[in-house]
Write a structure and sequence with these properties.
SpoIIM-like; membrane; transmembrane; about 325 residues; mainly alpha; about 80% helix; about 0% strand
Length: about 325
């Protein structure tokens, strides 16, 4: 789930809970009741499309205020609490608990179009604060808000003209589906923009480090073996022994690379030799390797020919893999 989606869900739950709490607090405020009646009368005196434009204009103004980064969440909390308080006051004037009115309002289809739009607007602004480099996601997501509020206004205005407002759920469900796919479309557009802008910049600062391949190690093996042969012809057995062992190290590493086995430690190299010994059917290969290793560690130049013979056997079997 995207980070923005999680934020929207959290804000929406906060919004609904705050609305229910505010509605549940008894309010005996005649001025709030008067303001509610005045607004309701203005709406009732409009035609259907007049109602749509009036409801939409008021709601979209609130939503864009909710979008303001950093302060939008505060504006959302104040507006939702105020709405709940007005509903509580009006309900109290009719001797009806405000919480019941709020729950009844939440069963109407327009509520589930209108309330989420405020959460989307506030979350989009909050996302820009949290991830300023991905500001385009917050801005693109805001596009859905006026569309959602316009659909909500169409439904809410229609509720004044039907005997059973719940029948408008038949219209609202396709609207929800449309809004979902629109949201996903906008998020994918944001993903594409962010992938184009961010990774390219990061790639300019990344140094690509390529690990040596099997062929690379074989090349180093040949170079070291040839160097050892040169020192041997010059009579410098100490250097010859050093480069012969270096060559066998590169060969073991190459074979380990080919077999997908690590070769970082002596134990790793031992495991490679054991694996090769098993594959070629020569269990003495590991003993030969260890004897050569002892001669190298002890620098026994008197055993140079034995050392070289051991390495020759090792190379023959290692090269057969």
């Amino acid at each position: 789930m995207r980070v923005l989606t999680k934020i929207i869900l959290i804000v929406f739950v906060f919004e609904v809970v705050l609305f229910l709490i505010a509605s549940g607090i008894p309010q005996n405020n005649p001025s709030l009741v008067s303001a509610f009646n005045s607004t309701e009368n203005q709406v009732l005196n409009q035609s259907y499309f007049g109602k749509v434009l009036m409801i939409f204009g008021n709601n979209v103004r609130v939503a864009f205020l909710d979008f303001i980064p950093a302060v939008g969440m505060i504006i959302l909390a104040v507006s939702i609490y105020s709405t709940g308080a007005v509903l509580s006051a009006f309900s109290s004037s009719l001797n009806v608990p405000g919480i019941l009115s709020a729950l009844g309002l939440m069963t109407l289809p327009h509520s589930w179009l209108e309330l989420p739009s405020y959460a989307v607007a506030a979350s989009s602004g909050l996302y820009i604060v949290i991830r300023p480099r991905e500001w385009v996601r917050g801005l693109l997501t805001l596009i859905i808000v006026p569309i959602e509020l316009f659909l909500a206004a169409l439904v809410e205005s229609g509720e004044f003209y039907v005997s059973n407002p719940y029948i408008l759920w038949l219209y609202s469900i396709p609207a929800f589906v449309f809004l979902y796919f629109l949201y996903e479309f906008l998020q994918k557009r944001a993903d594409r923009y962010i992938k184009v802008k961010t990774p390219v910049t990061q790639q300019q600062n990344v140094i690509q480090i390529q690990q040596p391949t099997y062929a690379d190690y074989i090349t180093r093996y040949n170079q070291s073996w040839n160097t050892a042969s040169y020192y041997e012809t010059q009579g410098n057995l100490a250097e010859a022994m050093r480069y012969y062992w270096e060559a066998i190290f590169y060969l073991i590493t190459a074979v380990g690379n080919k077999l997908g086995m690590p070769t970082l430690t002596k134990e790793d190299q031992d495991n490679v030799i054991k694996s090769v010994a098993y594959k070629v059917g020569n269990p003495q290969l590991y003993d030969i390797y260890n004897e050569a290793f002892k001669i190298r560690i002890e620098n026994r130049l008197n055993d140079f020919q034995i050392f070289k013979e051991y390495l020759s056997q090792l190379t023959r079997y290692l090269n057969s893999i």
